[in-house]
Amino acid sequence: MNNDLLHIPYASRRVPLIAGNGVVATSHPLASQAGLAMLQAGGTAVDAALAAAACLTVLEPTSNGLGGDGFALIWDGAKLHGINGSGRAPAALSVEALERAGQGTMPTYGWLPVTVPGVVQLWGDMHSRFGALPLAQVLGPAIAYAEQGAPVAAMVSHFWAKGVAAAHERTSPEFAGFLKTFALDGRAPRAGERFRSPGHARTLRMLAEVGPRAFYEGEIAEAIARFSQATGGLLTADDLAAHRSEWVEPLTMEYGGYTVAEIPPNGQGIAALLALGILDGVDLASYVRDSAASFHLQIEAMKLAFADIFAYVGDPAMAEVPVSAMLDRERLAARRSLIGDHAQDFGPGELPQGGTVYFCAADREGRMVSMIQSTYMGFGSGVVVPDWGIALHNRGCGFVTTPGHPNMLVPGKRPFHTIIPGFLLKDGQGIGPFGVMGAHMQPQGHAQVIVNSLTYGMHPQAALDAPRWRWERDGSVRVELETPRHVIEGLMARGHQVIAEAEVGGFGRGQIIWRRDSGEYVAGTEARCDGVAAGW
Predict the structure, then answer these.
(1) Residues 7, 457 contacting (CB under 8 angstroms)
(2) Is 67 inside any structural domain?
(3) Distance between CA 69 and CA 53 in Å, rounded?
(4) Which sign does the torsion angle of CA 247, 251, 255, 257 carry?
(5) Is 329 a member of any domain?
(6) 355: number of CA atoms within 13 Å, CB side?
(7) Residue 386 within a domain
(8) Tens digits of residue pLDDT in 71-108
(9) Residue 287, CB half-sphere, CA atoms under 13 Å: how many?
């Protein structure tokens, strides 16, 4: 990345981190420091990312955990690798099983939306291929925080209180482990209060000693399967034992002379590429960043992208996902031509024939990792395996029951996924990782920080700090309170239903690391979370 992105064309109260030997950027300062310690001990960017990943399951259980999924993009210094760490539906989970349970659609909480957790296997596969330090050393900081405790961060405490309040309303047997694991005398820990998680430490220690497959075939797997059977779950030991990660070829899109990479479906990263591909033929730079015209064009491009992915994206292993056709440049030009001066509702385009934490790391040798993991919707399904600290995710609620839809629930299928890591390249060389967490905000956040960086020349911190917008499926556009009034009024004049919103976490939380031509790193992290970019 050239020096131009170090100047400040946009008013930002914070400056980026600049470091020469490596950077770890996460949503929690202690997780960033744990990753940095791995770099200073001679570890790779993957070692650093995994140390941070494990710590985040302890320090920020409101967003991720051992019972969740994850994805990563890894630049090894010469090539970009993708890995899909999402789990599949249990063999017994089907539309018919939902109907027998009295459910017409996928529920949000309880056992039914629980798919096989993939993040622990993801850790193991990343470490075995790209790690340098022993896994026990990499997991060491997380084990220490789980056993000895750590002060709860301010933003985390906010979401923790919401999770505990909701848990008090769930009384069936599968929810019995939640408050025992995550509450102190029935309440959420307060900001600055030390929280310990002995069950979590027990699981991490076993993973360090036996290896990640213990989660899927050993004592941990047996505990998960027993609890499932005892409390009405469909997840079995066979489902866990069958799980594997998948190494995948990243999808790419050219924008502004750079190449943006995302993980292919079953995730929604393709939505960011579609929006950027549409915008690549628009002269956004002719409009100032904080203008209604620029916001309008970006919003309409994003709406076109979402219309496509909601119609066409599912698990490519079990349903055809026409990725190449969706990303066809001529098709994107046709989609671009639909954008007018006023807000519109879009359907999917014709095809040519033929609860989450994001973090990133970079090391002295130029290897870089873009990684994300989640239990979804905060603490996930609300189901916690007693004595093991494992909060199980609810990714299955991403399935639909519409016959023939590519994302229709089928046993053994991976659901549509919201969590996506991003990566930027230039002329085949890695520039760096980026990401913005937060459900369907994620591809919208990806598109906005790339536009901020490449079209408007913002450094990483400014690109993250700038006010964001968020399109909702009800047709409304939410904007942050810091959005200039003339932008809001201009969008409304163009027919957008605009709502200024102060919701904590509603506009995503992200990190960016760019590598300069000279080898130094420039990094930023969100003001919307507790995070920090740590470097040396």
Answers:
(1) yes
(2) yes
(3) 12
(4) positive
(5) no
(6) 30
(7) yes
(8) 999 999 999 999 999 999 999 999 999 999 999 999 99
(9) 17
**pLDDT of residue 505 exceeding 80:** no
What is the model's pLDDT at position 13?
Answer: 67
The single residue listed with the structure tokens 């797997």 is 221
Helix axes 45-59, 135-148, angle to 10 degrees: 20
- Report whether 174 contacts 110 (CB < 8 A): yes
Position 378 confidence tier, pLDDT thresholds 50, 70, 90: confident
Tokens of 375: 């239990």
Q: Which domain holds residue 370?
A: 17-244+354-398
Instruction: Please report which helix (H) or strand (E) contains residue 19, including its range.
Output: strand 17-19
DSSP SS3 for 274: helix
Which are the catalytic amino acids?
356
Q: How many domains does the chain have?
A: 1
pLDDT tens profile 204-254: 999 999 999 999 999 999 999 999 999 999 999 999 999 999 999 999 999
Token pair 């979402």: residue: 306
Q: Give which of 497, 494, 502 is closest to 292, Cα–Cα.
A: 494
Q: Is the pTM of this model over 0.85?
A: yes
Between strands 246-248 and 384-385, the pairing is unpaired
Rounded to an integer, what distance in angstroms lies between the CA atom of residue 512 and that of residue 411? Answer: 37
Cα dihedral 39/126/446/510 (nearest 10): -40
Tokens 């507790």 map to which residue?
530
Any domain includes 382 = yes
Tell me the residue type at 434.
F
